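Same chain as my last thread, 251 residues:
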Amino acid sequence: MTRPWLVTGLTGTLAPHVAHALQAQGHTVTGWDRHTTPADDSPAAHAHLHTLNPQGILHLALGSETWAHALATHAHATGIPFVHTSTAMVYSAQAGGPHHPTQPTHPDSDYGHHKARTEHAIRNANPHAVIARIGWQIHPTATGNNMTQQLQAQHDQNGVIRASRHWTPATSFMTDTAHALATLAQDGTTGTVHLDSNAHDALTFPELVRGLARHLNRDWVVEETDDYTHDQRLVDDTTRLPSLRERLGLA
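reply #2:
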């Protein structure tokens, strides 16, 4: 019997695309139902992991550091790949970018602090784990934390999208990120990596919004502002994603 890949967060935004990428390669994917099995370091959770006997774990769900530590510990003990998605928000706007994987984290939000603590818990449990920091995800139709949907909602409400010319966001198309995560789980990579299609293109937020509007044929009105300053880009020595200009047809 084929061992499944465990992908947490299948009711979320990005994880279903990761599952699809793995399934397209012929793999079986299973999720984690937190309503039936506790997501922590309990005997029930450990028993569930041993019953699943996954060939690898991609942890994309938002959950406790305890759960992340337990999943990473199981992966280390059984010698299987472990990939966790973290965020560009482990870096403060005051830190200045572009940000490198070895740069110390300095979050300035509760979410950023939580993800930084989760990274620490995973590293303590599993020295071979992959921690993949990602930026704001783009998809034409996906619900959840999707840049396109949130920009459209802002435009519908206000008739304009306010975009700071001093913000260079970390961002990628969701399907590109999903394929990169599936690859990271299988190519022997370890440690912290950054996945950002804007890492080298350095499109400012107004440039990105206008390019995305043309790409999706949206009639968005963009108002440039000066109200947020951050070079948020996530650079890495290895390029794992197509460039943002290329994806938007701006190259």
